[in-house]
Specification:
The protein is 40% helix and 14% strand. Strands 3-4-5-6-7-8-9-10 form an eight-stranded parallel barrel, surrounded by five helices. Strands 1-2 form a two-stranded antiparallel sheet. The protein is of the alpha/beta class.
Amino acid sequence: MPPHETPLPTRRLGRHPDEFSIIGLGGGHLSRSSVTDAEAARMIPAAIDAGITFLDTAWDYGYGVSEERYGRAIQGRRDDVFLMTKVCARDAKTARSQLDDSLRRLQVDYLDLWQFHEVNYDNDPEWIFEAAGAVEAALEARDRGLVRYIGFTGHKSPHILRAMLEFDFEWDACQMPISPFDGAFRSFRSEILPLLNQRGIACLGMKSLGGNGQFVGVNGLTAQDCRRYALSQPIAVLICGMVDERDLAQDVEIARSFTPMSDTEQADLLARIHREATDGRHEYYKTTTYFDHEYHREAHDFPAFAEIRNR
């Protein structure tokens, strides 16, 4: 996709002056086995050329595949992007090691944003903040100039993210689901987003299509409906999973032509899906372990999926 003469709209990182495109490129999809190295090598520069300046990835996406693909693709373009990755460890020692891994794979000497990944278990906040917890490594990294900003992510339940916010810590960002379905079941938008905005913490929206695109088609919903609804909320950026240039073209056009939904439009959209939204059946990331990475399951000593099936 060639550069477009019309730039994408931008938003700020919460209370900070940094600005980036209103959509970001999701690194999870780019680590899937269905995406080859060559395809990723085309996709990432094409996204930047199209105006996407926010890059999302994580230490555990493909156990390094995503970060390595980004690292190769952004050579010579580091200053063109806001680069974020995530740490999975809950203790300081392992978090330091994972940060070293991420910097090496990404081939950079600093991150714009480093986030505690998948804060999905009730005791994750306690583990992160206990003595020698991972927050110690994050503060050290910021002091050393390896990390500019610190945040956290989660997709399981608002009460767990609220526990992170209750610690005496000046968070810079929080990544969480923002979608039409979220409003009717364990709603991050209703319970967490107002708290973030009050404190100037940037909300990074994700899973606007459900993570696997499962929202599209429900009662006639389109990808444009879901993306536009999410972008109409007071968030800093919407992370979009893309696996090919067709996805990229679709999401870039949605961002470029974006106009906020009116309150009436939003209410009508939510009414269309209300019956199916109130039990979480389409939000697998809240109601099942489908989107929970095995690293985190093992850290909490939950059995592997194969073990469960064989019981």
